[in-house]
Amino acid sequence: MESLADDSWLVVAPEPTRDAPEAASPEPFGELFYANADATFEWIREQGIAPDMIGVLGFDDAGTAALYVATERVVGAVVSVGSRGIVRPVKEGARPLVDVVRSLRAPWLGLYGDDDPETPPAEVDALREAAGRSDAPALVVSYEGLAHRPDEPPIETDSVDPETDTSEAAILDARRRIFDWFDTHLR
């Protein structure tokens, strides 16, 4: 997110359900979740940014939440990194992402590490196939040899030789894809 801010993007990092009592939100992606997302989007609109110029970026469970937002709200583009819950819901009361992704209303980019036990390649392939049946543009990218998501560990240098350090090359590629996705769909 710091890289996006450095590139002159307005970056907002809300914790939409952090203060919400558990009992008030029996559905993980229900009324309270969307009310908090709507409040965040309203604040962004007050800064002069139209809904179709809003991008949503989430990592892990926040990546799952970002995909849900892309099916229920008007936003310009969404990126999920290492989002869980592909064939089995991330939480009770949620739907698996292979079902959710078919209802995309915004362009969605999903980034995954092939060696992540929580997002196995067969599940990511099923998500890729389901995303291909949505009406919105969707791209699912897998990175060979990454145990989790393509932003860990943090990159320390921009001079990477992809032939000798594939994980750092994947980090650079993922970062480039995130910027390109937002540049293509939001600017």
UniProtKB/TrEMBL annotation:
MF GO annotations: hydrolase activity
Region (Disordered): 1-26
InterPro entries named among the record's database cross-references: AB_hydrolase_fold, Dienelactn_hydro
Stored SUPFAM superfamilies: alpha/beta-Hydrolases
Domain Dienelactone hydrolase intervals: 36-185
Gene3D superfamilies, A to Z: alpha/beta hydrolase
A Pfam family per the record: DLH
Top-level taxon of the source organism: Bacteria
Name under which the protein is recorded: Carboxymethylenebutenolidase
